[in-house]
Amino acid sequence: MASWTYVDGEWLSGNPLLLGPMSHAMWQASLVFDGARAFEGTTPDLDRHCARVVASARALGLGPMLTPGEVEDIAREGLGHFTKDAALYIRPMFWAEGGFLGGAPETTRFALSVYDLPMPSADGFSAGLSSYRRPSPETAPTDAKAACHYPNSGRAMAELKARGFDNAVLLDPLGHVAEFASANLFLVKDGVVVTPEPNGTFLNGITRQRVVRLLRQAGVEVQERVVTVQELLAADEIFATGNLGKVQPITRYEQRELGPGPLFQRARELYWAFAHNAL
Ligand code: PMP
Fold first, then answer.
1. Is 153 in the pocket of ligand 1 (CB under 6 A)?
2. Which ipTM did the prediction report?
């Protein structure tokens, strides 16, 4: 894997060491990040991913010293280390360097890595229901794409891998369907696309918002509302959206085999057409 990281005004190759044992982020997880893709010469919604990482930093009480536009300029500079149509992952990060337990984070640092990462399989993945839930907004900074949320997603994923699935569906604190461990969730029933309405317990993904808009513009009915566990079990199609896998079909949910269905195909075609015009 080739990787380049921007830190303190220069680009370093490989995996430079940036945290020490005294760094606040290392022992208190005061780090936010975002992930955007560059592939086939396109960078869909890169501006929105750069804006979100700055917003996530503010949500955690960090002091982001860059504007979204400056983060985007650094990201585009990083793409210059690779060939034009390489499949890349762009990961900006802000973290607290100084500060103590119970106190506000003091010095904030920034780094941005660009590395080559093949596009995930277009075949999709299987999923089952996790016993772990998303945290409520009163107990965690759920409006930030923060590193501290991911060990919970990781243990949900591990739980379902142990049951033979690829990914996990997590419920919100009220027991309604929230999202996958690593992506947002859509289902299709009787020709209508349904996706959980963002309620502050899971990420309102940038790819999710884009797919909702594209489907509606194409005349497809999309409902954003409460989704129950029972509805998911009875869905005609289930698909996932996220910056990494883009739009992926769910091939099996619990005991039900599902194929890539027609509305998933439509969503993927619309997203791909959008992505290739978003240079
Ligand atoms: N939920 C979680 C937990 C995620 O990690 C991601 C990937 N960032 C998403 C949803 C999808 O968000 P986006 O489309 O903004 O990448």
1. yes
2. 0.99
